[in-house]
Structures are given as C-alpha cells and as structure tokens.
TrEMBL record, chain A:
GO terms for biological process: phosphoenolpyruvate-dependent sugar phosphotransferase system. This is PTS system IIB component. SUPFAM superfamilies: PTS system IIB component-like. Keywords: Transferase. One of its GO terms (molecular function) is protein-N(PI)-phosphohistidine-sugar phosphotransferase activity.
TrEMBL record, chain B:
It comes from the Bacteria. Pfam families: PTS_EIIA_2 (PF00359). Residues 8-162 form the PTS EIIA type-2 domain. The keyword Ribonucleoprotein does not apply. Signal peptide: none annotated. This is PTS sugar transporter IIA component.
Length: 101, 168
C-alpha cells in the first residue's frame, strides 16, 4: 500500500479534501493508496518517515527537510480537472519513479 | 427499524452576515463575537482563527474559475473551538485583503467569506468540496449576482438551494 500524508493548518477541511481526492483518483488509476489528513503542527520527522509522499496545500515550513517526496496539492482544492490533473500526474510519476507499491 | 441519519443544514438564515469592516482581523472579530453570542463557537474561536489565518491563510483566487468572480476566503479552525457543523456566509461591503491559501506569499482582495465551522471533519461530505463545487459549477451570471447581493434572506435561500441541488 502506498501511504500519503496530506496536511493543512486545521486538519479539518483542506487536507480532508486532498485525502478524498487523492484516494479516489489514484484508485481510478489502479494504485492502492491510503492517505491520512493531519494538522501541519502535528508533523514531525518520525511521523513523515512512515509515509511515501507528502502532499501539503502549499509550500510548508516543517522546521526540517522532509526525507520523502513533497508535492504541493493545493490546486486539487478547486475541483477543476484541468487544475487537479497535473498534481495527480506528479503523484503517479513519483509512485513510478520510486517503485512504490 | 432502519433510521435514516438526518443531515443538518449547512446554513442558517440567522447566521448570514453583511460586514462593512475593512480588515480581516476586524471582520473575523465582528463575526466571531456574533457566533459566540449564538453559542456556535467557543470563546477561543477568534484568536485561533486569526492565528491560523496568519500561518495558513485561506484566501481562494476565483479568477482562475471565472475572471468576473470576486475572490473568497474560508476562515476556519480546529473542531475543538466550534460547537456545530455549519457554514457562515459573510458578504463584505469593502474588499478585504487575505493571503492566498495555495500561495501564501500572494495577497488578494476578497469580497465574500464562507467561514467554516466544522466539529465533525470525518462525518459527512466534505464542506470545502461543496463550497468549491458551488463556486465552480454554478452559472457564472447567477454567481456574480449572488456575490453582489446584500439581501441576507436571498443569500441564504440561494445557498440553501444550490447546495441542496448539489447533493441531489
């Protein structure tokens, strides 16, 4: 299973939308993806190391450099295919490059 | 007997506001005070919304949807500071500056707020997704007229109808 960490300020709205959208689209593309939605302030190195990809809403200063690929997922929030597709493509590209399963 | 779970309405006619404030802090303070008086939020709501807005802004550029639409913002905070699941529409009489949610280095002028009170993020359909569906699928002329309206009853009815249609 591919594990993705989505994050936003409050952990209640944006990150949950990213989670729902990524799980649905990646499943449609044939990948077994599980995405968790959390508050940025709760992320530490131990937590992020348990995931394969980090998808914040915007560029985010975590206070450390994430060891996993970071993909800004903000455009997904618009729910417009043309805006979301490049994010999904980048996630898929990363899955392929890293050989994630 | 199978009981169908009743989904609460996202909007309340009494909680539609028109604000003449000119800064994000002033608007959020004004609306937070009203929501606190109505028992919809907890006393720490305002300071948490403002704090979050500085670190994780919520302005949404609708120019990319349609150039004629004004920008919106969706101020919110964690569920522990609210008592309900509701969206609070606020028409802004003057443009108010917010930072862009997906590019916090950019500022934008906002003319309408959807303040999200969400004490149940896992529970039902995603509130932000519904707001974005509303902004991206509603007829642009109708949406333009809606954003200009200062009639609270009309704002409430349009939102209620549009969000209901969305779920159908």
């Amino acid at each position: 299973m591919i594990k993705i960490l989505a994050a936003c300020g409050a952990g209640v709205n944006s990150s949950h939308q990213i989670k729902d959208a990524l799980e649905k689209e990646m499943s449609n593309r044939g990948y077994n993806v599980k995405c968790d939605a959390v508050m940025v302030k709760d992320i530490n190195e131990d937590m992020i190391n348990r995931y394969d990809i980090f998808t914040p809403i915007a560029k985010t200063d975590l206070g450390f450099t994430p060891s996993i690929p970071v993909i800004d997922a903000g455009p997904i929030l618009y729910r417009i295919s043309a805006m979301a597709a490049p994010v999904y493509d980048k996630v898929e590209e990363t899955i392929k490059e890293k050989g994630l399963k | 007997m199978l009981m169908e779970k009743k989904e609460e309405k996202l909007f309340a006619e009494d909680n539609v506001y028109i604000s003449s404030k000119t800064t994000a802090e002033e608007v959020i303070q004004e609306i937070s005070d009203k929501l606190l008086a109505d028992g919809l939020v907890k006393p720490a709501f305002y300071e948490n919304v403002i704090g979050r807005e500085k670190d994780f802004p919520t302005g949404i550029d609708l120019n990319v949807v349609n150039e004629s639409l004004p920008n919106i913002a969706i101020p919110h905070t964690e569920g522990e500071f609210v008592n309900v699941r509701r969206v609070i529409p606020v028409h802004l009489e003057h443009p108010v500056t917010f930072k862009n949610m997906i590019d916090p280095s950019a500022s934008m002028e906002v003319k309408f707020l959807f303040m999200i009170l969400n004490n149940d993020p896992e529970g039902q359909s995603n509130i932000l997704a519904q707001i974005m569906n509303f902004c991206t699928t509603t007829n642009a002329n109708d949406l333009g007229a809606f954003f200009k309206s200062t009639d609270k009853k009309a704002i409430y009815e349009f939102l209620n109808r549009s969000f209901k249609d969305q779920k159908a």
